[in-house]
Design a protein that fits this description.
8 helices, 6-stranded mixed beta sheet, 30% helix, 12 strands, binds zinc ion, 243 residues, Purple Acid Phosphatase, chain A, domain 2
Length: 243
């Protein structure tokens, strides 16, 4: 295995997930396996289908706050109103098998030279890493060389030991040999950095390089399905502006 497709925050957005899988397959080198840093479900209209797709590609996956929220392992009072409504909707629309898939997700996983968590190495399900200062403070909690996180829905690259932030824009390629990195590939299914396109990463472990990618998907198809399925309207609207 040398090229790993790195996903986070799919959020039941099948259009975005399929666009990412198609795009990553046609990239030079493609990918050999899939890592997913949590929040497979929540917010979006296709939880079953996204779980099925990740199972088809045998993704290695950890639990996010929405995955545990939809299976009753995190109080819904922790979420804002729209997120809680989506958690309830998701939980009502999961088969037993899909529920079991979510319940079996570990909170952290060692993949290659990475610790993969949804939030942070200190609080794997809930903590947001939004600054290099936080990433630096988390180095002591990371029992692997590097760390992959999701949760913020914004791509990010922090060097934990040098306390340096690197650009995580489309096309950025980072050599991981020079330090210990905490990386967020950005969100597949609900980007929040002002760019509505789906975000993902690819890690090449022969070259020790991490690439940041973006790909367009049919936002209208997902937002229409959100409305048709009775999820909160704001969850449809935000996809169009990437927040
Ligand atoms: Zn999320």
């Amino acid at each position: 295995m040398s090229r790993h497709l790195v996903l986070a925050d799919v959020h039941s957005n099948l259009e975005a997930l399929d666009a990412v899988l198609r795009d990553a397959r046609t990239c030079p080198g493609g990918f050999d396996d899939v890592w997913c840093a949590g929040d497979v479900v929540g917010y979006g209209p296709f939880p079953e289908e996204c779980i099925a797709r990740l199972r088809e590609v045998e993704a290695l996956c950890v639990a996010g706050n929405h995955d545990v929220g939809a299976t009753g392992q995190l109080e819904l009072s922790w979420f804002n109103d729209e997120a809680a409504a989506a958690c309830r909707w998701t939980s009502d629309h999961l088969t037993c098998e899909a529920q079991q898939f979510l319940l079996r997700l570990p909170q952290s996983l060692h993949v290659g030279s990475f610790l993969m968590v949804h939030g942070s190495p200190r609080d794997p399900v809930r903590e947001y890493v939004t600054s290099v200062q936080t990433a630096n403070a988390l180095a002591a909690f990371c029992n692997a060389r590097h760390c992959i996180v999701g949760h913020t829905h914004c791509p990010a690259a922090y060097c934990m030991d040098l306390s340096v932030s690197h650009p995580a824009v489309e096309g950025a390629v980072l050599c991981l040999e020079r330090g210990r990195f905490l990386l967020n590939p950005g969100a597949v299914g609900q980007p929040r950095d002002g760019d509505p396109r789906a975000a993902y990463g690819v890690f090449d472990d022969d070259a020790h390089m991490f690439e940041f990618h973006r790909v367009e998907y049919d936002v209208t198809a997902t937002s229409s399905a959100i409305l048709a399925r009775g999820l909160p309207k704001a969850l449809a609207m935000r996809l169009h502006c990437g927040y």
